[in-house]
C-alpha cells in the first residue's frame, strides 16, 4: 500500500504539535537571563573579589561592610552597596588611574550573602533529598541535582523541568532530559542555572 504525501502531512503536524507541548520549552534558557547575576546589586556582607590586571598586589577579597563600602589598596574606601559589580569596577578603575597606567579592574561576586534566599537554587520532587542550595557562579542543573543526592528509583528523570522567573511575565519552563544527562552523558540540557531557579523531577505514573 502506498502512502501519499497528502496523508503524511497532517500526521506529521499532529506529532510535532504533541512533541512541542510536552516537557516544557525545548529551547535553552535565553542568555539575557543568565546576565542577571552581573546586574545584581551588591549588598552588605556580600563577598567581593577585586582584581587588577598585572597588579595582583592591588587585588582584594573582602565582605562589604555595614556602611556599604570596601577598602581597596591605593584607592581607599569605595562604595559598593547598592551598585552593580561593573559600576564598582569602573569607579575603582577611574581612581586607580592616578597611580597605575591604564588599569584594568574586574569586580566579581564570589558569595551572595545579602540576598541569601533570592540567590538560592532549589531542587524538588523525586530526588533523594530535596534541597535549597546557595547559587554559585557556573553552577549547572547536574550540580544542583547531585547536591540533592541524585534521583530516586521512582523518578521520571527525562520529564524534569527548570523553572525560572521571566521578569514580570511569570515563570518560564525549560525541559531537562535528566536521564540522558545522568545515564548517557548528554549535556545538551545541562543548563547553567541562575539565582532563584527551581528544578523539579517528577515521579513516574504507574
Task: List the topology elements.
Blueprint lengths: L4 H17 L9 H4 L12 E6 L7 E4 L5 E4 L3 E4 L5 H12 L8 E7 L8 E6 L5 E4 L6 H7 L12 E6 L5 E6 L1 H7 L13 E4 L5
Parallel strand pairs: 6-10
Antiparallel strand pairs: 1-2, 1-5, 3-4, 6-7, 8-9, 8-10
What features would you describe in this structure?
- By secondary structure, the chain is of the alpha+beta class.
- The protein folds into 2 domains: 47-111, 2-Layer Sandwich (wza like fold); 117-201, Roll (Outer membrane lipoprotein wza fold like), CATH 3.10.560.10.
- The chain contains 5 helices and 10 strands; from the N terminus they run H-H-E-E-E-E-H-E-E-E-H-E-E-H-E.
- It has helices at residues 5-21, 31-34, 85-96, 141-147, 178-184; strands at residues 47-52, 60-63, 69-72, 76-79, 105-111, 120-125, 131-134, 160-165, 171-176, 198-201.
- A 5-stranded mixed sheet has the order 7-6-10-8-9, covered by helices on one side. A 3-stranded antiparallel sheet has the order 2-1-5.
- The longest helix has 17 residues, at 5-21.
- The model is unreliable at 1-22 (pLDDT under 50).
Could you list some keywords that capture this structure?
alpha+beta, wza like fold, Outer membrane lipoprotein wza fold like, three-stranded antiparallel beta sheet, 5 helices, elongated, disordered N terminus
In short:
The chain has 206 residues and is of the alpha+beta class. The chain has helices at 5-21, 31-34, 85-96, 141-147, 178-184, and strands at 47-52, 60-63, 69-72, 76-79, 105-111, 120-125, 131-134, 160-165, 171-176, 198-201.
CATH topology of the largest domain: Outer membrane lipoprotein wza fold like
Shape: elongated
Strand content: 15-25%
Uncertain stretches of 5 or more adjacent residues: 1-22
| Strand arrangement in the largest pleated sheet | 7-6-10-8-9
Amino acid at each position: 500500500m502506498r502512502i501519499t504525501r497528502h496523508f503524511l502531512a497532517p500526521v506529521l503536524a499532529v506529532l510535532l504539535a504533541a512533541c512541542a507541548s510536552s516537557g516544557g520549552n525545548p529551547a535553552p534558557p535565553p542568555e539575557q537571563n543568565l546576565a542577571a547575576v552581573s546586574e545584581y546589586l551588591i549588598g552588605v556582607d556580600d563577598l567581593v573579589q577585586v582584581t587588577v590586571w598585572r597588579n595582583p598586589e592591588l587585588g582584594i577579597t573582602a565582605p562589604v561592610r555595614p556602611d556599604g563600602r570596601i577598602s581597596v589598596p591605593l584607592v581607599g574606601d569605595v562604595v559598593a552597596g547598592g551598585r552593580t559589580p561593573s559600576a564598582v569596577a569602573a569607579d575603582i578603575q577611574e581612581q586607580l588611574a592616578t597611580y597605575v597606567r591604564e588599569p584594568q579592574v574586574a569586580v566579581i561576586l564570589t558569595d551572595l550573602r545579602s540576598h541569601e534566599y533570592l540567590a538560592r537554587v532549589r531542587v524538588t520532587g523525586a530526588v533523594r533529598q530535596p534541597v535549597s542550595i546557595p547559587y554559585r557562579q557556573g553552577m549547572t542543573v547536574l550540580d544542583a541535582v547531585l547536591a540533592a543526592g541524585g534521583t530516586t528509583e521512582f523518578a521520571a528523570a527525562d520529564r524534569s523541568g527548570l523553572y525560572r522567573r521571566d521578569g514580570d511575565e511569570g515563570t518560564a519552563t525549560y525541559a531537562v532530559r535528566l536521564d540522558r544527562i545522568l545515564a548517557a552523558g548528554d549535556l545538551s540540557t545541562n543548563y547553567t542555572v541562575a539565582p532563584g531557579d527551581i528544578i523539579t523531577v517528577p515521579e513516574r505514573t504507574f
